[in-house]
User: What shape does this take?
Amino acid sequence: NAGVTQTPKFQVLKTGQSMTLQCAQDMNHEYMSWYRQDPGMGLRLIHYSVGAGITDQGEVPNGYNVSRSTTEDFPLRLLSAAPSQTSVYFCASSDPEGDEQFFGPGTRLTVL
Amino acid sequence: KNQVEQSPQSLIILEGKNCTLQCNYTVSPFSNLRWYKQDTGRGPVSLTIMTFSENTKSNGRYTATLDADTKQSSLHITASQLSDSASYICVVSTGEGNYTGNQFYFGTGTSLTVIP
Assistant: This one.
């Protein structure tokens, strides 16, 4: 199993550009989440999904959209990138009990 | 307010020495507490999980303790190795069997550096 994969690993955007961060998991997990990690702060939840077709907002959802058309994929879209969105983004999927999260390797995003 | 606080923020130790990292939480209701290890440039990986009824859990050279009364946990690393250099994150879950993405509360982590 590849676990949770994320692409790209690094990305540089200009203010106002849009892009999609890809996340896929091959563990058949229903639960998936997107987090951002900033220096000196704990991981903060952006959006999450409890299954295909079902998504909900987390702590910091503004400026981001998600969709979940399949169990495997959970892409995160930045609609109009801002410098405040410079961060490291992690996708995670959770085991059936919802307790243990398995994280992807992260995407380091810089918005100029 | 649900919070998870970790100390120290950073720590430097000599290879072969032991160290203890602290985690205090005010999360309620409490379901479980996990310690994650995050290597530089990688995602966090679970080390241990502890539920309300457990007060000690070991994973090799890592031993976690939990005092549910005082809402404190510690992660003790024995005979440190260079590969232990990483950030260690304490995560408390309020999950009660029904997953919600908002159930996890993350500490800011302790950055551990092991030097030769």
